[in-house]
């Protein structure tokens, strides 16, 4: 491994020795590293697949999960493909025929622009679909191998689960980089102006987030409908434990973990990184243009600045690979597996910080502003620290070592009502610290960026403040591959536990998978916090990209500054509608779970009635029927919230064109910007509330199960189960879908901005 | 009654016959009508007090409620007076010694400005305290009279309850008008420039809202802590019905209705009307100044425009009085009492619309823009229609005739978890329609205002758009006195029902008070919707007042336009913090209820243990001890959320002065504006969620109690009780406190703006 890095460093140094900007060299490096990431993913997948697949009993269950997950994803992807094809055609028509061509457009004809935007949309959508599929594919194969390995060694189980997760993590991040880098290379080869390329490939981010939204929604609804349905009838009505083979919805529940957490989150982070790459490239292009005009050109030229985000991401992939490979237990298997994970993550963080410093010095060096590169480097460090802060805050609010979860557990003593009231209050409260951290990160990185250039440069318009926030975002996303590996680790270990439980393995093995499962719960919560934090930072970067784009497409004169003035009534209304979108979307996502869960409940009840022998192990329940019902239900229910998210910003943009006047030509674009920004603000807070609130309820229940306030079967426990059930659609459906929604709002407005002007 | 109106109209016509602006005449009219409103309030109070006070049993209960409520309010007011004194001193010091005097200040010395702002703050705070006290005073005397009247006639009971409520309604609105009008008159008599007076009395609105915030918080925490506490131990643990005399917390619960709903809402609407008056006056002053400069002077001069809001409010008082007096049942007492109420309200609405038209024609006539007055009149009509729309939407989401509540009731069949999930999803969903209505109202009234003047006037800067939204707000608030009467009607009938129940009156009388109580529940929900809608509209007006003020205090040149550009990172962070404030405040308010309820629960349990005879009617519980404990608890718990609300905007304003630079002198004021606006947006949505969600849960329970899904004592009913309990602190503590918070944010920033510049 270390040899590889050494040779890469050599390669880089050779390339950067010239003073001329070596665009192709940099692009080659980026594409090479993304291919390298894919190769490693393949190697890890092979490593995992070679492992033992356990007993026949285990295989039976694992196969049922596999079949269910594949059937769901096949149907879901079909639905998404229909929707995406419609959108692609619409984009083509809108760009090619509805909108009239302007001289200042990035390409000479309307049709050509329409072609590139739609093609990049299709590519983004396709890659996102594949990324989600791969995540699920490897996860449903790693679960049984993890379960089987647990029979012998905890270390083996840990490594299989994490490396299985890493296949998806690496694949997602490398694919996203390869897509953006590859598109860029193709357009460059076709002789396009490098500064205009990002505007031609904005569709890639939108395609990715469009698919991510539906994948996360569909998967999220599926997983929680199955879970809530299984719990309500199984645990509460029939009185059988979780993951019990007598429950007809149990396989659907296990399938849910894969399609919700793996496929959904995979598509989510795929689009995060893709959108962030493109946004940062647009900002880089703007900065270098201004720097050149102001007499402060970067040493390696504007293209180097524009490609910096891709290089930073590429180095992050390598750092993540090293971290993942280094995760292992001590010989006696005494340490907390979380500790092993943390050690690997620390390696990845430190390595990626070093790589960041190197990339900054290499690509962002500026003779006229010699401090610039380390200012940007510090912005990257801020991003990394932000992600660390998010990890700690999420732990404080969701682990039962701390005050918030204990408060909920204590409130359970007085029944479900006080459990819910306290949980909601903890959920609302936990938005405060992350907001403060994000605020500090934005202000600090903006300030560092702004002071990267001397005073006289700033006066000339060379303001790198926004680029500073972009670099912080890159810092936060540097270790995305590792984070995603940890995230997929969750459902794999959860499934492994389910397989061990259902195939009635001995207590000692269950204990091992329980240990892993506990770690998986923690990593799932942490990665959600991370996803929100990065969405918040990335949003800021995407706003700026949107504003730059509006300026370009409006053809306004050089000195023109586009503002988003929410004191204008029309813009204020845009902001109000943006915030409302978040509430309404959450309502629809939560209700979708309720509706889909109802189908499950009815089916399970019907099965218990049709075959009373199920409860005494005489009859076998029809798992497939349940899987089928929840599949159909989830896909049906995902359409409404998904379409709302897509249509609302578009409608505001188009309807508010009514208010365009001679003195206020950009009012529609400005209102959409307000919708986007205030929607993002509300979305961040709401998602934090939903994610952490749900996590806290979950662990309050676990705290009681650990023997507090009367332990299992006590009244407090019953109350805590209510809270846990309420939290399920919050933390696994609405919350994660909001992350994607926020980012999709940015990318959809980026793509459609030219139509609002 | 009609004679009075006739003579007033004569008076007005006499006064408006001159073409010179008759400032003193208009002011005289306003003060006269407010005094008239107070006289009518007094007359109604006497009318109510003359009524029969029922049996000795009833009096015993009523006296216990009276003592408890008075004890709480005395203590609460003492706490609030301490806090307000501190703030008054702080304002004086900040204005008089910290901030340096500028030439463009409205008065010649810093100390004089400090004097007026602090004095108006003290006056506003004092009036608000008195308004809250009067509301409670009359309510705890009307309850027993309503109960006693119910023995004989439903019509008598209805009239006593409504007229008792009207005492507080009229008193609040008339006092607020008298305060603003009187302060204005005093300053005018002292020879101050009329256009500068609003800036000197901004403290009045802040004083009012400061008190309102703590009154609503303290009262809201008290009422729900008592309610939740009484229900949890009484209904669930001991299995005794609601309002049962064996429950030691039952008197505290009945006290809570008075201190939460009457005193809290009284202070809330007092400040609404006061703040809206001042905000509209500032906008009127700006508009008339620009109109004069642009060559489009109003016929009766600028002062007439500035005083228009006061006149419109004064006419609204008369319209409300007529409406209130006209409410009565049919002879057979067969109609729904709500219908009788609605008829009276329709009268008030129609009359106030007519008066609005008259006032517009009289004071806003402009020879150079002859269409202006009826454009403004239409804005007022939009305001009235908005309030009607809010009433319907609130009904749809909270009454069990419609889909949302029925959905929650149905979900109760599968247990408390699905009840909660569905309730939250309904709550989130119900934010959509009000947002759309508010958006439409803002855009339409802005558009009407903007087109009130011809094109060439707009080019010269005569833009009446914002004034149009201000007039819409006035329209919405025109019937505030009637609405407040309906609101106070709620706790009076609730208490009357409690008294009848506890003194074990025959079934027939209980049925009568139950009919009134059901109406009271509806009116309480409706007025909350109304309060949010008016807060949303009024907020927009207060933003503009803030921006005008910033412009004035910054001493920027004439053509300067102050923008709130949330695409600037510092301003965006302000917006983010504003939204976060809403979440954190809600968390603290909800948690405060939980904590205070815990004290109640422990005391009730202790009492049952100490005297086991309580449950068999052998021993009498110690009601006073419970009242005392919840009083202390509520006052202790209100401090933290209250201080957060006050300190957060101030801190942002002061800390963000760090970012002030030569090119961006107003950045701190701009960030505070963003905090205010986005905080308001989130606050409106969150309050709507909390209010309607809570209302829907409440009525889902009632729907089941009416015999659906198994009726009382079924499992569905138990689940619905959980939802109802969760909804309690939402709809009666956090939601209403958010209304006040939104308005206090506006007024506090208005007062402190000069310090952020």
Brief description of this entry?
In chain A, about 80% of the residues lie in helices and about 0% in strands. Chain A is mainly alpha-helical and about 750 residues long.
Secondary structure topology:
2 copies of one chain form a homodimer.
Chain A: H1 2-16, H2 23-49, H3 56-98, H4 110-152, H5 154-189, H6 197-200, H7 202-238, H8 250-293, H9 302-326, H10 337-363, H11 372-398, H12 403-411, H13 416-429, H14 432-450, H15 455-459, H16 465-477, H17 480-502, H18 507-554, H19 569-610, H20 623-655, H21 667-705, H22 715-756
Helix pairs in contact in A: 2-5, 2-9, 3-4, 3-7, 3-8, 3-20, 3-22, 4-5, 4-7, 4-8, 4-17, 5-8, 5-9, 5-17, 7-8, 7-19, 7-20, 7-22, 8-9, 8-16, 8-17, 8-18, 8-20, 8-22, 9-10, 9-16, 9-17, 10-11, 11-14, 11-16, 11-18, 12-13, 12-21, 13-21, 13-22, 14-16, 14-18, 16-18, 17-18, 18-21, ...
Radius of gyration of chain A: 25 Å
Helix content of chain A: over 70%
| Helix/strand structural class of chain A | mainly alpha
Q: Outline the biggest β-sheet of chain A.
A: none
């Amino acid at each position: 491994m270390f040899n590889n890095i050494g040779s890469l460093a050599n390669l880089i140094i050779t390339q950067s020795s010239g003073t001329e900007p070596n665009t192709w060299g940099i692009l080659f490096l980026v594409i090479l590293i993304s291919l390298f990431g894919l190769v490693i993913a393949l190697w890890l997948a092979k490593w995992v697949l070679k492992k033992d697949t356990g007993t026949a009993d285990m295989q039976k269950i694992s196969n049922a999960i596999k079949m269910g997950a594949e059937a769901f994803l096949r149907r879901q992807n079909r639905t998404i493909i229909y929707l995406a094809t419609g959108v692609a055609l619409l984009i083509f028509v809108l760009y090619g025929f509805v909108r009239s061509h302007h001289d200042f457009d990035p390409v000479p004809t309307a049709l050509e622009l329409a072609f590139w935007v739609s093609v990049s949309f299709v590519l983004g959508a396709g890659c996102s679909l594949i990324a989600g599929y791969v995540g699920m594919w490897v996860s449903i194969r790693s679960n049984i191998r993890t379960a089987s390995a647990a029979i012998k060694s905890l270390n083996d189980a840990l490594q299989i689960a994490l490396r299985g997760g890493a296949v998806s993590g690496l694949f997602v991040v490398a694919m996203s980089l390869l897509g953006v880098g590859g598109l860029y290379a193709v357009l460059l080869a076709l002789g396009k102006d490098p500064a205009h390329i990002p505007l031609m490939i904005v569709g890639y981010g939108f395609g990715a987030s469009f698919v991510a939204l539906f994948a996360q929604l569909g998967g999220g609804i599926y997983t929680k409908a199955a879970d809530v349905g299984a719990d309500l009838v199984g645990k509460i009505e029939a009185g059988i434990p979780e993951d019990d083979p007598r429950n007809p919805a149990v396989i659907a529940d296990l399938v849910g973990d894969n399609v919700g957490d793996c496929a959904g989150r995979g598509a989510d982070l795929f689009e995060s990184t893709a959108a962030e790459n493109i946004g940062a490239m647009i900002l880089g292009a703007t900065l270098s243009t201004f720097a050149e005009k102001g007499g402060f050109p970067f040493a390696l030229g504007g293209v180097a600045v524009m490609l910096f985000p891709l290089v930073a991401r590429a180095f992050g992939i390598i750092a993540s690979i090293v971290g993942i490979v280094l995760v292992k237990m001590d010989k006696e298997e005494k340490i907390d597996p979380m500790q092993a994970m943390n050690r690997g993550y620390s390696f990845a963080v430190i390595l990626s910080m070093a790589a960041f410093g190197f990339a900054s010095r290499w690509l962002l060096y500026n003779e006229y502003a010699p401090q610039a590169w380390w200012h940007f480097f510090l912005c990257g460090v801020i991003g990394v620290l932000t992600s660390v802060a998010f990890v700690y805050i999420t732990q404080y609010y969701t682990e039962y070592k701390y005050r918030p979860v204990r408060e909920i557990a204590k409130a359970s003593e007085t029944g479900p009502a006080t459990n819910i009231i306290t949980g909601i209050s903890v959920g609302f409260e936990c938005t405060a610290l992350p907001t403060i951290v994000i605020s500090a990160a934005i202000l600090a990185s903006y300030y560092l960026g702004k002071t990267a250039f001397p005073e006289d440069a700033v006066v000339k318009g060379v303001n790198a403040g926004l680029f500073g926030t972009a670099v912080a975002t890159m810092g936060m996303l540097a270790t995305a591959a590792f984070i995603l590996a940890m995230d997929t680790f969750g459902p794999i270990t959860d499934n492994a536990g389910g397989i061990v439980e259902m195939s009635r393995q001995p207590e000692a093995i269950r204990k091992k998978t329980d240990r892993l499962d506990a770690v998986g719960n923690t990593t799932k919560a942490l990665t959600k916090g991370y996803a929100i934090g990065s969405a918040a930072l990335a949003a800021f970067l995407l706003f700026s990209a949107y504003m730059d784009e509006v300026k370009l497409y409006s053809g306004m004169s050089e000195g023109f500054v586009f503002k988003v003035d929410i004191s204008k009534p029309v813009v204020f209304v845009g902001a109000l509608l943006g915030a409302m979108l978040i509430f309404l979307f959450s309502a629809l996502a939560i209700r979708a779970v309720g509706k889909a869960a109802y189908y499950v409940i009815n089916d399970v009840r019907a099965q218990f009635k049709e075959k009373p022998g199920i409860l005494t192990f005489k009859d076998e329940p029809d798992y497939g029927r349940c899987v089928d019902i929840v599949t159909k239900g989830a896909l049906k229910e995902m359409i409404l919230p998904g379409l709302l998210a897509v249509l609302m910003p578009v409608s505001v943009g188009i309807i508010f064109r009514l208010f365009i006047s001679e003195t206020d030509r950009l009012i529609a674009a400005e209102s959409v910007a307000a919708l986007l920004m205030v929607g993002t603000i509300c979305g961040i807070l709401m998602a934090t509330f939903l994610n952490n609130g749900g996590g806290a309820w979950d662990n309050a229940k676990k705290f009681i199960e650990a023997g507090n306030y009367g332990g299992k079967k006590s009244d407090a426990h019953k109350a805590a189960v209510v809270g846990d059930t309420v939290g399920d659609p919050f933390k696994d459906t609405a919350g994660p879908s909001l992350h994607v929604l926020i980012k999709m709002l940015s990318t959809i407005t980026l793509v459609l901005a030219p139509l609002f002007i």
